[in-house]
Structures are given as structure tokens and as C-alpha cells.
Amino acid sequence: MLTAGSTSAHAQQSERKVRIAKIEIDSAYLDAYKATLAMHAKTAVAVEPGMLALQAVYDKAHPTHVTVFEVYASEAAYQAHLKTPHFLTCKNGTLKMVKSLELVDVVPIAMEIKPVLAEHQE
């Protein structure tokens, strides 16, 4: 049974843009790419109201295979992200580092994250 609050939350979630980027990095640039991506993610989440989440990981067995998970409040928020100075700096600064890029729009089934207290973070 849906309540008014859950209907509103469902409408907000259906407007979200959720995307996965599958990226292969040239091994010669891996450390530089990871540093650039980490700074970009931190900045994007801090300054963009429509950037709800940006998480990046690499495959332990294949460190040059990077996966980025992005959640935007809307398509408009995603389009605004593409025009930000920090995105353009990251994108243009890493062009020679990226061997391949696949962007996949996805639909969430469940996205649960437990809040972590600052003193428990490493």
C-alpha cells in the first residue's frame, strides 16, 4: 500500500538518472587517472546539487578496469554536470589515459547505503 510520502519518493526516484561507466585505462596512466577521478568525484558531489552520488571502483584482478556509478537528480542535472569546469577538466585531462569507455544507463532495483560516522572512516 502506498502512502502520499512513498508516492512522492517514487516520483523523485523515477526522475533520477542512474548511469554506470565502464572504463579501461592505459596502465601507464593508472595512478594519475585514479587521482584525477577521485578529485573530480569529491568536487562534483560537494558542489553540484543534482549530483546525488558518484562512486568509482577498480577491479582487483584487473586494476585498469574502472567502474563509475553515478546518480543524478534528473536528466537536467546530468546535462548540467557535463558543462561544469571540474567535469571538463577531468574529461579533457584524461583523454589520453582512457583506452575504452562504455556508458550504460541503468534502472535501480535497490540502492541502500548505511550512513557512516566520521570517526569510523579510514
Which helices and strands, and how do they pair?
Layout: H1 4-15, E1 17-25, H2 30-47, E2 51-58, E3 65-72, H3 75-81, H4 85-93, E4 98-106
Antiparallel strand pairs: 1-3, 1-4, 2-3
Features:
122 residues, alpha+beta, Alpha-Beta Plaits, four-stranded antiparallel beta sheet, 4 strands, 38% helix, 28% strand, globular, disordered N terminus, monooxygenase
How would you characterize the overall build of this protein?
- Pfam families: ABM (PF03992).
- Keywords: Monooxygenase, Oxidoreductase.
- It is a single chain.
- The chain has about 120 residues and is an alpha+beta fold.
- The chain has one domain: Alpha-Beta Plaits (2-Layer Sandwich), CATH 3.30.70.100.
- About 40% of the residues lie in helices and about 30% in strands.
- It has helices at about 5-15, 30-45, 75-80, 85-95, and strands at about 15-25, 50-60, 65-70, 100-105.
- The protein has a four-stranded antiparallel beta sheet.
- Strand 2 (about 50-60) and strand 3 form a beta hairpin.
- Helix 2 (about 30-45) packs antiparallel against helix 4.
- The protein is globular.
- The termini are far apart.
- Mean pLDDT is about 90; it is low at about 1-10.
